């Protein structure tokens, strides 16, 4: 069964082509085609300073695939993916439904171009269901109350909440820890929090310059240390191997070389409620 994007039929969608957007810049890093000149220009500034950002984006995607398989194999059948980004196959629901065809997935993003592509996110297996909600993580109550979510997920049963490569775009003044707490408080025991987050710990000067580029493009950005990242998991039980760089969280095959840590400059973690 397919869902329906939460947008009025026939409504014009303002793609804001002249304003860089994080989802479209991420698409650029991954080598996609769904971005505009403003996104490419800002993203290329980042690539010039931080060539590893392409590797970071690829490793983030690989982590999402691994952790989704892990959770589906552990019995999770519901997924809430906030900050979805532009569809890049395999998408989360494809990975989950390959393991468990009855998996249900709700995608959330605030970039209008993601809404344009939302149909691609809602081609579900016959046994499962997918849906898309147009909303911002800074308004968690709107996400939780959205008909597209309530019609798809049963919040009295465990849900895996994915906040991948997202919360570094929520500065402290927007209460990122409170946002995560609000979302997790609404989920049943046995739910999981999955997160990746850019950090300055491995290459402070480069990451500081990247933050300046995002802020100079009108995009909020705040990277965090390992200790600050760990705060998001307070009150939850971290899943082994705990907080790691994304490519070292249950890697497939041979462990990646240590030099990749600075290229990726991010942390990943999974925790159970």
Distance between the termini: 29 Å
Helix/strand order, N-terminal first = HHHEHEHHEHHEHEHHEHE
- Helix coverage percent: 25-40%
Largest sheet: 7 strands, mixed
- What's the multimeric state? single chain
**Sheet with most strands: strand arrangement:** 3-2-1-4-5-7-6
Question: What is the residue-averaged pLDDT?
Answer: 91
Structural class by SSE content: alpha/beta
What Rg, in angstroms, do the CA atoms define?
A: 17 Å
User: What is the total tally of β strands?
Assistant: 7
Number of helices: 12
Low-confidence stretches: 1-11
Strand residue percentage: 5-15%
What overall form do the CA principal axes indicate?
A: globular
Any chance you could write out the topology, listing elements then pairs?
Elements: H1 22-29, H2 37-49, H3 53-73, E1 78-82, H4 92-99, E2 104-109, H5 112-116, H6 118-121, E3 129-134, H7 140-145, H8 147-150, E4 160-164, H9 176-185, E5 192-198, H10 204-216, H11 226-230, E6 237-238, H12 260-264, E7 266-272
Parallel strand pairs: 1-2, 1-4, 2-3, 4-5
Antiparallel strand pairs: 5-7, 6-7
Helix pairs in contact: 1-2, 2-10, 3-4
Notable traits:
273 residues; alpha/beta; 7-stranded mixed sheet; 7 strands; disordered N terminus
In short:
With 273 residues, the chain is α/β, with parallel strands linked by helices.
Give an account of the 3D structure.
This protein is of the alpha/beta class and 273 residues long. It has twelve helices and seven strands. It has helices at 22-29, 37-49, 53-73, 92-99, 112-116, 118-121, 140-145, 147-150, 176-185, 204-216, 226-230, 260-264, and strands at residues 78-82, 104-109, 129-134, 160-164, 192-198, 237-238, 266-272. The protein has a seven-stranded mixed beta sheet with strand order 3-2-1-4-5-7-6. The radius of gyration is 17 Å and the shape is globular.
């Amino acid at each position: 069964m397919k869902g329906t994007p939460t947008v009025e039929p026939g409504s014009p969608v303002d793609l804001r082509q002249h304003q860089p957007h994080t989802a479209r810049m991420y698409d650029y890093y991954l080598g996609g085609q769904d971005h505009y000149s403003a996104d490419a220009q800002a993203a290329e500034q980042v690539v010039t300073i931080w060539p590893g950002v392409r590797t970071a984006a690829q490793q983030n995607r690989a982590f999402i695939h691994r952790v989704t398989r892990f959770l589906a194999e552990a019995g999770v059948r519901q997924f809430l993916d906030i900050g979805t980004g532009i569809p890049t196959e395999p998408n989360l629901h494809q990975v989950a439904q390959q393991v468990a065809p009855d998996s249900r997935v709700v995608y959330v993003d605030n970039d209008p171009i993601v809404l344009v592509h939302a149909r691609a996110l809602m081609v579900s297996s016959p046994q499962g269901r997918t849906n898309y909600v147009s909303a911002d993580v800074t308004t968690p109550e709107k996400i939780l109350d959205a008909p597209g979510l309530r019609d798809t997920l049963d919040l009295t049963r465990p849900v895996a909440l994915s906040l991948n490569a997202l919360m570094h775009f929520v500065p402290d003044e927007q209460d990122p820890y409170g946002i995560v707490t609000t979302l997790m408080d609404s989920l049943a025991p046995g739910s999981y929090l999955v997160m990746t987050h850019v950090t300055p710990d491995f290459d402070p000067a480069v990451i500081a310059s990247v933050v300046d580029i995002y802020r100079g493009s009108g995009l909020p950005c705040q990277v965090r240390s390992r200790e600050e990242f760990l705060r998001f998991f307070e009150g939850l039980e971290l899943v082994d191997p705990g907080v790691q760089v994304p490519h070292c969280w249950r890697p497939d095959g041979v462990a990646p070389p240590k030099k990749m840590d600075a290229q990726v400059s991010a942390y990943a973690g999974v925790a159970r409620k």
